[in-house]
Amino acid sequence: MNNILQLVLTLLFDSYKPLYIAARALYILGAWLLFKKSGIDGRWSLVPWIREYQLGRCAAREPEGRYLCVTSMMITILQVANLCFVRLVKNETLISFKPLILVILFTVMLMHFVYNIRVFAGFVRIYGVSRAWLALCVIDELRFIPMLVWGVSGKYKPAWKVEDLKAEMERLATHGTAAVMDEGLTVNLKDRHVKEFFQKRYLLKDIHMSIPQGHMVLLLGGSGAGKTTFLNAVNGYEKADARVTLNGNDMYTDYKKMLYEVGFVPQQELMRGKDTVLRTLLDAAKVRLSKDIPKENREQRVYEVMDIFGLTPVKDHLVEKLSGGQKKRLSISMEFISNPSLFILDEPDSGLDGVMARELFEQLRRIADTGKIVIVITHTPDRVIDLFDDVIVLAKDSSRTGRLAFYGSVEDARAFFGKEKMEEIVKSINQKEEGGDGLADEYVLKYAEVQNG
Fold first, then answer.
1. Does domain 168-452 bear CATH number 3.40.50.1110?
2. Model confidence pTM above 0.70
3. Which of 129, 135, 289, 426 is most buried, with most CB under 10 Å away?
4. Each residue's pLDDT tens digit, 289-315
């Protein structure tokens, strides 16, 4: 009992010296003031660990705030465990675990430090101050200084309030649904979310569009904007809270039937190097075509596709011996076997030079001209932008949710963003810490206002 009392007294007094107590009190006061300025109840500053999560929200760094909360909790637990080993544990076997606890504690403290810097980098952006302020955020005992200055001075005002921006996003970004077309692709995606930190984390939200047949569409978006998640939701691989129809058929309720109507070519080439081109396509035909189709018809379709993509001269070559361009065409051919109505390609020009990429995209243009819908992700869009009809722009808003910032023709996209090049559009919506202009929220709201009329 005396040992336990001694431990409690140590926790209360030895570890919390007067200067540290003063620094923590000022830190809590600074958090209270920042919460009030950001439209959050200041009383959250009095709640250990949750306080760090709320700081992340105020700084438009909610994901980092979650990790900051968890690492803060872990540090407290590990420090108490370490103190218990020092004060109470006498067993040599148990004492041997102390170095492991110290290693884990050091690792968690390092993670905590990184997330702290990320959160306060968010405050720098929100308050429009110099990055030099981050120097005061490196040391725990000095972190209260910028918090108090930003919180007390009327000179510093946050670019937006947490709840106000959330309400504005919900009001404007939910602009109804796209009318379902009998011919073409219609996407009405309410949200795609995962469970994280005991609550929903939205990956995508409020994406509505209708794409006519025969259109070749460029999908743009910065890192983490949800491009691949969006495509997986469209093709039914990752179901969202959405209704996706292709030529009037529901992609989710008729999933087995629609498998043959959608071709998806991933960035990675999924082919066996020791197989020939012909064998690779024959195997693909067995998977991609209905089992009811006779063998001779499947083989006929394979030869048709080889002719379309210029692979007939190399049909007996091993896949590993093909050039980069030939491998890309073979990868596309494997999905085109089923003659899909919707063709989705994730960076099909990856690793190709300009001439080979141009030839590949011209082939995709010809496929679209046959009445197919072709959706493409590429990181070098400007060299082939003349081949596209439309542009989809996904942007990661301040809450890290992928939203629709634009959908329309290439020329309308240039006018909407005031940018001539597609790569400049991506730069404008990327976060500042990613080398962008940090205008994602502005364009999401602007597009929603245009849609609302």
1. no
2. yes
3. 426
4. 878 888 888 889 999 989 988 899 998
